[in-house]
DNA sequence: AGGATTTCCTGATAGAGATCAAAACTAAAG
DNA sequence: CTTTAGTTTTGATCTCTATCAGGAAATCCT
């Protein structure tokens, strides 16, 4: 074994249900597993993919978290996504065969590397895999369009509440606590993503704490009143 | 012939290059054509699909234009997309097998109806079709994420300029004039989509006209200085 | 550990765009 | 052709959040 993580397979991966193997049987998982490489862990601030680089692989997050962002004409970063375990990175690049955004680790993270051409061949033979690819892409289309609605016509407090609720839901899907979690991104990242200034994020987190809806201690968030928070998000 | 439009086929459709048949050969187009139904024209204000309805078909726009929107908990409409000829409607629903948004005609429009199950079977056999489906979905992911960046951290004028430029580009792709076109949506629709009030849209269109960048007369837009407009969009 | 750097918080001010209000215009319907 | 409903425009005011500024806390690095 050249790789200390080579004992990890789709068949025993806890994220399988969210990831590509969803609904595949044991044999299907085994076949998918053969084309997937376990990527060495990447460290905080490391960049996984650069915008413009040829798209050879999709990446599935095994552990940790990352952010994707573009850089506009003025050199300003615009965060478009935060990735958690089970998420697949790179779908936005399929149409042009190159990555359309940068993806950077927010903490030490483990990834699976999925060669596109092999995946295409496999999808031809496996209807379940094909359907799951459609599901994942479709879900990404839906969530990003829903986010549009969230950002438009909503106050700063509603946006932040929505962000916290959505994160909680995502952690729950992954078998983690939806009541308390750690933010791996900075306040500036959250602000950038939601179209708000750092100061506004900080103020609103403080307000939500004063109102007893959440507890915040640095990166740690505890949701005290989930229902009220959900109401605030509308 | 029971249908006055039954002589229209993918093989002679002017939108084929933007739509599903992209890169298919004559035989491929013919096969795709057999599963596609020509839908009867729908009138302005008619609703093509309701959010929550089971997703049996995708729709390709042949002519006309439509808007897609969700309705939030407060009953407020949130427009998430405008569809032009060649666009495929319904990808956001694949993940849950039901439509996630309402789609309404902005003017009399012609549509092609594509049964999902038949499309899946065809995609299994035709790598080119499969790849085009991926392209279209991937493109939709990219553009909606890019729009996020456009709405965040941008002024009202930049948003409107971006909207006008993007529309011009889309018309150009479709072989229409990118210099002058007709807006089929209301100012209120544009505002809703861009997260701005009707009044702001109206004021900014007036300003752009005063500055000589565009001419607006009711629904008709003429772009006088494309480069300056593009600059304004950043 | 100790200094350096980044991140976070809080206050004060200003400005972009929402909202309120009303009139002018356009399109649809009788 | 007249009426009516919907859309667009313009003006005045107000509010939310960006920006500027300073300091506190946390984290990184040697």
UniProtKB/TrEMBL annotation, chains A, B:
InterPro entries: cNMP-bd_dom, cNMP-bd_dom_sf, Env_Response_Regulators, HTH_CRP, RmlC-like_jellyroll, Tscrpt_reg_HTH_Crp-type_CS, WH-like_DNA-bd_sf, WH_DNA-bd_sf. SUPFAM superfamilies: cAMP-binding domain-like (SSF51206), Winged helix' DNA-binding domain (SSF46785). Residues 20-103 form the Cyclic nucleotide-binding domain. Residues 154-227 form the HTH crp-type domain. One of its GO terms (molecular function) is DNA binding. GO terms for cellular component: cytosol. Keywords: DNA-binding, Transcription, Transcription regulation. This is CRP/FNR family transcriptional regulator, anaerobic regulatory protein. It comes from Pseudidiomarina indica. The lineage of its organism: Bacteria, Pseudomonadati, Pseudomonadota, Gammaproteobacteria, Alteromonadales.
């Amino acid at each position: 074994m050249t790789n200390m993580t080579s004992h990890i397979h789709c068949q025993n991966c806890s994220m399988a249900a969210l990831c590509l193997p969803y609904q595949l049987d044991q044999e299907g998982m085994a076949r998918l597993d053969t084309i997937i490489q376990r990527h060495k862990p990447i460290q905080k601030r490391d960049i996984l993919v650069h915008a413009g680089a040829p798209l050879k692989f999709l990446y599935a997050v095994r552990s940790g978290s990352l952010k994707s962002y573009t850089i506009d004409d003025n050199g300003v970063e615009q965060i478009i996504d935060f990735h958690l375990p089970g998420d697949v990175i790179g779908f936005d690049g399929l149409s042009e065969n190159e990555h359309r955004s940068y993806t950077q680790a927010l903490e030490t993270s483990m990834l699976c590397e999925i060669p596109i051409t092999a995946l295409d061949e496999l999808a031809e033979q496996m209807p379940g895999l094909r359907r799951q690819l459609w599901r994942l892409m479709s879900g990404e289309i839906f969530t990003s369009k829903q986010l549009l609605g969230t950002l438009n016509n909503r106050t700063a407090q509603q946006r932040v509440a929505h962000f916290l609720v959505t994160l909680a839901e995502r952690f729950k899907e992954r078998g983690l606590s939806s009541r308390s979690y750690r933010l791996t991104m900075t306040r500036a990242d959250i602000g950038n993503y939601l179209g708000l200034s750092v100061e506004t994020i900080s103020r609103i987190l403080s307000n939500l704490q004063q109102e007893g809806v959440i507890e915040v201690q640095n990166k740690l968030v505890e949701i005290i009143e989930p229902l009220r928070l959900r109401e605030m998000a509308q």
